[in-house]
């Protein structure tokens, strides 16, 4: 039965603005309060100036909202791209941070053109090729890397330059040598975030936790007089001062220009012929596109009106936004899941909420830049450490383990590979391991990238989809396209008795397709799996055909 709520689906365009400007304006303002500190923190963690993240969020709101294929997503910089951008800055700059920043802007511009072309040629469907365990492993690895780098900022200590493993190895030393006043600010921020995540009171939950962290940070920064360089206010014995960074001051605050227009910087394409440049381009385009598509699909599931984003149009719009952002000094953007979730919870109806969030950011940086300068870096770092923990929390490991041991193995392999190499190589290794496991479970090499199915229309009007061989993440794209073109309101039967192996990605797709198709008036059945053994008790676990021995 069609959901009654579809009758009152909000209008788009100017009609949507007229009808829903109050709810969208309020939500846009609340999202702005969350976005401001996150944009600053993500930008600095990426090796960009603080204003770069705000530039991106402004463009994501004001420009991308007007041409995107989604309804309630918020576009802006995301923690998931920190590792990619920072690696680009460091590899292209070769020790010169400003040069690396401008070279990376050029890489963002080229990557944005690729994203636009991907959207135009309908490459949004390629997100299906990345198995869930690999994507979650990539995000968990990003979370670990963010925590490893930002915990030093929370403690007010600058680690010695070196590899990621060196940075992780220096964490105990940073705790031993922490800057007390800065650590109080960072520790208070983490405490607030943890408490807020445990709160049940819906009225307190309406106050954005990042806003509380920033306000408390500003208050403590004023109390510790961070605007002026001085020695610690306590623990000032000579031995301590001889072995620690003994001074605090403006270097622990956000550095931003009073004139926002002076924050614009322009790309330098002089390294376009180098392999490092193209590695950065591919990483930004691939990881950014994948994250944006996955986020847009996740937000669609939260939409109370059950609207579905046009992923190809959305990818094109994000590419346009990145083209503008990269041309004037901004970070790359995606459809960001945390801010989008807040947007839904705040009652947003249309994409005008995204527009308003960008407009509020623009007004704030134009009229209140001095207030931004009073935000301690440790407060922003605490937001990133908490974000990193959520990406790599024990709950993520438990969720993957619940789907199956092979999923956990792929998840962990991807994490280790990303940390030991880089994002692209780590993801590639995760996918190869996944394919190898499928082969070991009986998938034929000829079946890895080609699915075998027939479509039969029965006399009663039902459509029978009969699948043979393996149905796995790497081969079911053609089946997905066939189903996308299927007439609504019919009865669809998936006959899987001839399937030798069906993985978690396909089981998850069947589950989501059934939910969506039935919500639009059709019916959907999955039959023939009674002769299959599941890899775990999870309802969407991978399955393979049982080997029935003859008597």
Summarize the main sheet.
Answer: 6 strands, mixed
Gyration radius, rounded: 25 Å
Could you tell me the number of beta strands?
Answer: 10
Class by helix and strand content? alpha+beta
Low-confidence stretches: 1-6, 236-244
Tertiary shape: globular
Estimate the strand proportion.
5-15%
Fraction in helix: 55-70%
Count structural domains.
Answer: 2
What is the count of helical runs? 22
What's the N-to-C terminus distance? 48 Å
- For the residues shown, what is the average pLDDT? 90
Description:
The chain is an alpha+beta fold. Strands 5, 6, 7, 8, 9 and 10 form a 6-stranded mixed β-sheet that branches. Strand 5 and strand 6 form a beta hairpin. It is globular.
What is the gist of this entry?
The protein is of the alpha+beta class and 551 residues long. Helix content is 58%, strand content 9%. It has two domains: 379 residues, no CATH class; 101 residues, 2-Layer Sandwich (Transcription Regulator spoIIAA), CATH 3.30.750.24.
Task: Please specify the SSE layout and strand pairing.
Blueprint lengths: L12 H33 L4 H13 L11 E3 L5 H12 L3 H24 L11 H24 L8 H6 L1 H6 L3 H19 L3 H4 L3 H15 L6 E2 L6 H6 L3 E2 L26 H28 L8 H18 L5 E3 H9 L6 H16 L1 H5 L3 H15 L2 H10 L1 H16 L2 H18 L11 E6 L5 E9 L5 H8 L6 E12 L1 H16 L3 E5 L4 E3 L8 E3 L6
Parallel strand pairs: 6-7, 7-8
Antiparallel strand pairs: 1-4, 2-3, 5-6, 7-10, 9-10
Helix pairs in contact: 1-2, 1-10, 1-14, 1-15, 1-17, 2-13, 2-15, 3-4, 3-12, 4-12, 4-13, 5-17, 5-19, 5-20, 8-10, 8-17, 10-17, 12-13, 12-14, 18-19, 19-20
